[in-house]
Input
Amino acid sequence: MMALTMNTGTLSTARDRRARLTRDAIGVLVILAVAVLGYLLFPNNLALLTRITAIALLVLSLDLVTGYCGVATLGHAALFGAGAYGAGIAAAHFGITDPIAMLAVGVVAGALAGLVSGAVVLRAHGLPQLVLSIAIIHLAHEAANKASGWTGGSDGLAGIMPDAVFGLWQFDLWGRTAYVFGIVLLIAAFVVLRQIVRSPFGMLCRGIKQDPLRVRAMGASVHGTLIRMYAISGAVAGAGGALNAISTQVVGLDSLSFTLSAEALVMLVLGGTGSLYGALIGTLSFLWFEDVVSAANPFHWLTIVGALLIAVVLFAPKGLYGSLAALIERRGRKGR
Amino acid sequence: MSAIFDVRNLKRTFGGLAVTNDVSLSMAPGDRVALIGPNGAGKTTFVNLVTGNLLPNSGSVALGGEDVTRLGPTERVRRGLVRSFQVTRLFSEMTPEEHVALAILQREGRTGRMFASHRAMPDVMDEVHALLARLGIAHLARHRVSEIAYGQQRLLELALALALKPRVLLLDEPAAGVPQSDTARIEQAIADLPADLAVLMIEHDMDLVFRFARRVVVLAAGEIIFDGSPDAVTKDARVRQAYLGSYADARSVA
Output
């Protein structure tokens, strides 16, 4: 019990800071290790790994509003698609082919899409909120389909030719540059989001998820806070969309689809909501499992994915990471 | 002393029934007022009108001389009107330390900060621990709220209210649901509230009312039927009538 006794003041503050930095460094190292392992084990499949990285950004983004704020949404791909089309249109129509600039356009487009869809979705709660989010993704999908002059419609937006990164690294046929670009982006997003979820702002969001009335009774604005989080979430999803556009050099309507929104939610639940690690683990395991199972059994792979999901929801309701973390916490407490 | 809290002729009807009818109540800094009344007297409606969760049909609410009748709940909190809840409303997955830090940061307008943890803010952490220590729950600072006893949660609820540095504090049955063994702790915490704070306590437990209040206001059927000293309240015929109905003539309240 002694370890729990508090010392006040700067001593504990400094110790806390060191502990936080250590944890973050471990997180970054784990992502790096998995990324290097992926590169070494699947050198011919880097396109899939880059796609996993882009989707991981979408799932991280979804975790910000669903896991940390408790907003129910099945339309989150609208933010991802906005980033993808933003970066794609900038390159194909405006000649902005510098990958960093394309990424910036994607981030801004995603944030704007976040503001707009947040303003709509946050008007309601619970089931009506879910329905609004579905309406948004369908509207966005249809808008992109109709504006084929800009988006290429159902044929997809082609003609995206990104320049070399910093003029040094060309996007090669094997997708090495795109993969490294993606991993650097993911780590940068992870580090920034770790700061945000731990900050006073992140704490306020967690409070809103648990009891918005209590938050109001503390004098804080629930709606304003959620809108801000939606914009941040949009920026992250937009970065994922831009990465997808840069790495595949094409943007299709599937990046703005209900299916992608729903799959992102499935990945998040699989990994565990309300933790960044859960979002990453959920994405990786879902997409990897999907890849393996669909190759092994092209006819029944969806059934197998469904069975896996039922198993996780029944036996590990907090998701893969959430259940593991809870187990370790229980063990730790017993040992004390 | 001038009024810090001034409610004038507040009226609210639901479907033609006046649930709060022409209620006026004024408090000065340092006041300790208990609001009592039988079930259905309109206490909850009154609290909701005062905190801004309901709008009145007529009448006004003023804080420190400023009319806040048309302002929402968060605006009133920012002007110093803070309430506690009858049933604790806390964030079950968060720790007392996080609760109080959040309240302090909110008070100082720092909850928009995205790139610094509250634990890296020595001024906030010192205040958090001082406040938790004052209420005797410092040793629980880093336990999850869902893991701590109800009586301690009530104390945290008080800590949360105090962290907002209110000018007017509404305590809605602060000892409700707390086991007898823990009520002394809560009563002590209430007795130790800052001297310049105006406190309005809504309470059923008459022992607590008599120990706490220097003034008692009785609400019955939406109207104030008594406003005076604790000594006089038990002797008042209308109060006895309201609480005991026809039994009032036969038995004594005390």
The longest helix of chain B spans residues 150-163. The longest strand of chain B covers residues 17-27.
